[in-house]
């Protein structure tokens, strides 16, 4: 494969996806915002902050110049935190080749506008790029993909040809990529599962058991599907890799930064302290704000997200939040979702 690929974002996930692409024979340039990270990747072939103990393929070249990274590339992969997507996309836009594929692998909404990442990309890039935008999502901890643990993900686009071209570039024997036509569902599922992962870390830290974990995953999926459907997603997407798949992996794994953040909060740490100690992106925090706003906009009930919002942003005691969830008014399990089918 002779694809020239730009990967924007040299954190855990960007570096691992760059590795997958380099192993697939792509010519990969990885943009890092700090010179010391780019130098380390170019000279030592490591990225010790984000992937300690891992040797990267020598074929990956790192750069701190967005224009050099993007110019002439066949595919541009954005893997920056969602809060920086618009800025980075805007800086990249003048250099994106007219027929380039544009993919993102970030899981969140834009703060304030609460737009999905593909909407942000569409607004920042020339209009003709629209059909070539795709999202890569699904249950995929960077720490396991780099060890070549068999992993399955999904690529979604409004254009099937785009999804299939991206699938062909990423797929290999340990990284199996499925296509999905529902870009809204794939983005919403990938973003909202981080809220439930944070809540799972909290629940584990409070000493609750497997029943509680199953409750969080299942009822979390119900509220993700409720909001997602109201936003235009196909409900069936949420029983796929970007829905239940990603929920399971993030709610049950200590690799998850969102799970770890929730666990730290359960031990009495303040949110600011948790984020500082983590030193890596915890998308679920801003996504909880997004869910708070979106559930009001779309008039959709999201009791788990609401209680997490109260714990994170109004100082509510997590034990009281659990009590309020368990004693709230009686509801049906599936009726509201089925109504939308
Ligand atoms: N890690 C994983 O397993 C997976 C992550 N994702 C998603 O990928 C996205 C990136 O996450 P991940 O790589 O894990 O994050 P990390 O915390 O590992 O790395 C964050 C990266 O983003 C850079 N960065 C931070 N702030 C800005 C900014 N304002 N502008 C530009 N760059 C910035 C950091 O640069 P610096 O080092 O200079 O601070 C670093 O390169 C997230 O949306 C996440 O949800 C999706 C699937 C799996
Ligand atoms: O999205 C992920 C795995 O699919 C990674 O989750 P965290 O950001 O919680 O580590």
UniProtKB/TrEMBL annotation:
<feature type="binding site">
    <location>
        <position position="50"/>
    </location>
    <ligand>
        <name>NADPH</name>
    </ligand>
</feature>
<dbReference type="GO" id="GO:0005975">
    <property type="term" value="P:carbohydrate metabolic process"/>
</dbReference>
<keyword id="KW-0594">Phospholipid biosynthesis</keyword>
<feature type="binding site">
    <location>
        <position position="281"/>
    </location>
    <ligand>
        <name>NADPH</name>
    </ligand>
</feature>
<dbReference type="GO" id="GO:0051287">
    <property type="term" value="F:NAD binding"/>
</dbReference>
<feature type="binding site">
    <location>
        <position position="258"/>
    </location>
    <ligand>
        <name>sn-glycerol 3-phosphate</name>
    </ligand>
</feature>
<protein>
    <recommendedName>
        <fullName>Glycerol-3-phosphate dehydrogenase [NAD(P)+]</fullName>
        <ecNumber>1.1.1.94</ecNumber>
    </recommendedName>
</protein>
<comment type="pathway">
    <text>Membrane lipid metabolism; glycerophospholipid metabolism.</text>
</comment>
<keyword id="KW-0444">Lipid biosynthesis</keyword>
<feature type="binding site">
    <location>
        <position position="12"/>
    </location>
    <ligand>
        <name>NADPH</name>
    </ligand>
</feature>
<feature type="domain" description="Glycerol-3-phosphate dehydrogenase NAD-dependent C-terminal">
    <location>
        <begin position="182"/>
        <end position="323"/>
    </location>
</feature>
<feature type="binding site">
    <location>
        <position position="107"/>
    </location>
    <ligand>
        <name>sn-glycerol 3-phosphate</name>
    </ligand>
</feature>
<keyword id="KW-1208">Phospholipid metabolism</keyword>
<feature type="binding site">
    <location>
        <position position="256"/>
    </location>
    <ligand>
        <name>sn-glycerol 3-phosphate</name>
    </ligand>
</feature>
<feature type="binding site">
    <location>
        <position position="13"/>
    </location>
    <ligand>
        <name>NADPH</name>
    </ligand>
</feature>
<feature type="binding site">
    <location>
        <begin position="9"/>
        <end position="14"/>
    </location>
    <ligand>
        <name>NAD(+)</name>
    </ligand>
</feature>
<dbReference type="GO" id="GO:0008654">
    <property type="term" value="P:phospholipid biosynthetic process"/>
</dbReference>
<dbReference type="InterPro" id="IPR008927">
    <property type="entry name" value="6-PGluconate_DH-like_C_sf"/>
</dbReference>
<feature type="binding site">
    <location>
        <position position="142"/>
    </location>
    <ligand>
        <name>NAD(+)</name>
    </ligand>
</feature>
<keyword id="KW-0521">NADP</keyword>
<dbReference type="InterPro" id="IPR006168">
    <property type="entry name" value="G3P_DH_NAD-dep"/>
</dbReference>
<dbReference type="GO" id="GO:0005829">
    <property type="term" value="C:cytosol"/>
</dbReference>
<feature type="active site" description="Proton acceptor">
    <location>
        <position position="193"/>
    </location>
</feature>
<feature type="binding site">
    <location>
        <position position="107"/>
    </location>
    <ligand>
        <name>substrate</name>
    </ligand>
</feature>
<comment type="function">
    <text>Catalyzes the reduction of the glycolytic intermediate dihydroxyacetone phosphate (DHAP) to sn-glycerol 3-phosphate (G3P), the key precursor for phospholipid synthesis.</text>
</comment>
<feature type="binding site">
    <location>
        <position position="107"/>
    </location>
    <ligand>
        <name>NADPH</name>
    </ligand>
</feature>
<dbReference type="Pfam" id="PF01210">
    <property type="entry name" value="NAD_Gly3P_dh_N"/>
</dbReference>
<feature type="binding site">
    <location>
        <position position="246"/>
    </location>
    <ligand>
        <name>sn-glycerol 3-phosphate</name>
    </ligand>
</feature>
<dbReference type="InterPro" id="IPR036291">
    <property type="entry name" value="NAD(P)-bd_dom_sf"/>
</dbReference>
<dbReference type="InterPro" id="IPR006109">
    <property type="entry name" value="G3P_DH_NAD-dep_C"/>
</dbReference>
<dbReference type="Pfam" id="PF07479">
    <property type="entry name" value="NAD_Gly3P_dh_C"/>
</dbReference>
<comment type="similarity">
    <text>Belongs to the NAD-dependent glycerol-3-phosphate dehydrogenase family.</text>
</comment>
<feature type="binding site">
    <location>
        <position position="34"/>
    </location>
    <ligand>
        <name>NADPH</name>
    </ligand>
</feature>
<feature type="binding site">
    <location>
        <position position="138"/>
    </location>
    <ligand>
        <name>sn-glycerol 3-phosphate</name>
    </ligand>
</feature>
<feature type="binding site">
    <location>
        <position position="142"/>
    </location>
    <ligand>
        <name>NADPH</name>
    </ligand>
</feature>
<keyword id="KW-0520">NAD</keyword>
<feature type="binding site">
    <location>
        <begin position="257"/>
        <end position="258"/>
    </location>
    <ligand>
        <name>substrate</name>
    </ligand>
</feature>
<dbReference type="GO" id="GO:0046167">
    <property type="term" value="P:glycerol-3-phosphate biosynthetic process"/>
</dbReference>
<dbReference type="GO" id="GO:0046168">
    <property type="term" value="P:glycerol-3-phosphate catabolic process"/>
</dbReference>
<feature type="binding site">
    <location>
        <position position="257"/>
    </location>
    <ligand>
        <name>sn-glycerol 3-phosphate</name>
    </ligand>
</feature>
<dbReference type="GO" id="GO:0006650">
    <property type="term" value="P:glycerophospholipid metabolic process"/>
</dbReference>
<dbReference type="InterPro" id="IPR013328">
    <property type="entry name" value="6PGD_dom2"/>
</dbReference>
């Amino acid at each position: 494969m002779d694809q020239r690929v730009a990967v924007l974002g040299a954190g855990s996930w960007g570096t691992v996806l760059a590795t997958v692409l380099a192993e697939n024979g792509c010519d990969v340039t990885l943009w890092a915002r700090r010179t010391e990270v780019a130098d380390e990747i170019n000279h030592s072939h490591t990225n010790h902050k984000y992937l300690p103990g891992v040797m990267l393929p020598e074929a990956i070249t790192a750069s701190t110049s967005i224009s050099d990274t993007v110019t002439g590339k066949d595919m541009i992969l954005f893997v920056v935190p969602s809060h920086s997507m618009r800025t980075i996309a805007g800086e990249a836009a003048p250099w994106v080749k007219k027929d380039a594929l544009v993919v993102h692998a970030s899981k969140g909404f834009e703060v304030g506008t609460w737009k999905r990442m593909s909407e942000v990309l569409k607004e920042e890039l020339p209009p003709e790029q629209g059909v070539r935008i795709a999202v890569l999502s699904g249950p995929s901890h960077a720490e396991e993909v780099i060890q070549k643990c068999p992993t399955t993900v999904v690529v979604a686009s409004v254009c099937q040809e785009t999804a299939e071209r991206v699938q062909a570039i990423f797929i290999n024997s340990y990284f199996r990529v499925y296509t999905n036509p529902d870009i809204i569902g794939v983005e919403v599922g990938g973003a909202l599962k981080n809220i439930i992962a944070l809540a799972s870390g909290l629940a584990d830290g409070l000493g609750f058991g497997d029943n509680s974990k199953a409750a969080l995953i299942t009822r979390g999926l119900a509220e993700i599907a409720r909001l997602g459907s109201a936003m235009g997603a196909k409900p069936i997407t949420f029983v796929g890799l970007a829905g239940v798949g990603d929920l399971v992996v993030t709610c049950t794994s200590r690799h998850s930064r969102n799970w770890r953040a929730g666990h730290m909060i359960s031990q009495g740490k303040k949110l600011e302290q948790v984020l500082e100690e983590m030193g890596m992106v915890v998308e679920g925090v801003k996504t909880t704000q997004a869910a708070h706003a979106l559930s009001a906009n779309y008039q959709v009930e999201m009791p788990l997200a609401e209680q997490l919002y109260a714990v994170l942003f109004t100082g509510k005691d997590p034990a009281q939040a659990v009590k309020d969830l368990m004693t709230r008014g009686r509801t049906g399990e599936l009726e509201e979702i089925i109504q939308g089918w």
